[in-house]
Amino acid sequence: MIGVKCPKCALMQMSRPTCKSCGTALNGPAPHPTPTQAFTTPPPVSSPPPPAGPIYMTQEAPPYMTQEAPPYMAQGGPPSMVDDAPPHLAQGGTLYSELDGGQIHWLTFHGTGGSLFGIQIVNMFLTILTLGIYYFWGKTRVRSYLLSQTEFAGDRFAYHGTGKELLIGFLKAMVLFVPIIALYYAPQFVEVTEVVKIVTILFVYGMMAVLIPLAMVGARRYRMSRTSWRGIRFSFRGGGMDFVKLFAKCSFLNMITGGLYYPYYETRKHAFMVSHSYFGNQKFHFDGHGRDLFGSYMLAMLLALPTLGLYWFWFQAKKHRYFWDNTTIDYARFRSAVTGGALLRLWMGNILLLVVTLGLAWPWVVVRNAQFTARYLTLEGSVDLTAIQQQAQVASPTGEGLASFLDLDSGFDFG
Questions:
Q1: Cα(48)–Cα(383) distance, rounded to whole angstroms?
Q2: Which of 23-32, 308-317, 370-379, 392-401 is least confident?
Q3: CA neighbours within 13 Å on the CB side: how many for 15?
Q4: Distances 303 to 254, 257, 267 between C-alpha atoms, Å
Q5: What span, in angstroms and rounded, lies between the C-alpha atoms of 336 and 320?
Q6: What is the pTM of this model?
């Protein structure tokens, strides 16, 4: 055996790995392991050289690393920067830029109450300055602003009406309506028999029963003909007298049933308006039935007193959803998600704004209503835009003038 001297403590000792006195490492063969160490100490394992790349490139990766990455990760940007973004983040408020993608398309309103307030202030000033004549031009400016701020599938609507048209329509309506008003009040200034009074009143009410539906149809015809999207005009092609007959029949049935026919009347009237409406040469369709709303209507009647009439908002929301959900164009169907609670909050907020500001908040109320409609309305499905062709229709502003005269300003919409 060869003796080894410890370089630290100079102790001579047999060859071994470490000094038995101070533990300093010595140059010598390692001792044999004891029987206990032979069973408890694992043998050394030769590790393979480290891989040249990340672990998931050379070995089986964990499940979360093998799944397909989301679209926005593959395209190198967050959801708001790509087409797969959520609807409220995507440009134009739509999942895709075209309607033929068979997806969900959203309406977006960009207007603000401040901008509309500026328009309204100018309108009021010029209306006073022109003794009311500028009212028709001011009305046109408001409509043009609201439609130009409404966007669908990346493009905004446009309004093509003029103040001159509204003024001419109003004057024509006056020529037609003033004699009826004069006839109604004539018996108060002229000595006539009771029979003549009764006949006169019946005649006036009969004329009103005809003029009201004619004004509703005329106003819709005019407004749709002056509205376009992507350069293609809307149009309404329903017959005025056909709607007069429908209006008279439904009004009579509603009267003799004590109001129970109301959901049927509302549905049939809405069906007439929608089913005769077009976008270019593409027709809108409505497949709803009044019986589907009858149960909700009866529930609203039963809960009218216990809820102080507030449940009526839930019925109105149900009717709004039903009308939109049963309206289609091509292979696309409209959808509405409005609720009674949301409708009630909108109404209460509008009333509060108008009362607190003494009516000055009217522009903000209009904007709130437009934003509310856009928030809950979508179009699901596909529309072949390449097949839609321009079919603009001639429409007189007389019906619009009648509607304005009779305060039937129901606006241009399908809901």
A1: 61
A2: 23-32
A3: 9
A4: 20, 20, 22
A5: 7
A6: 0.71
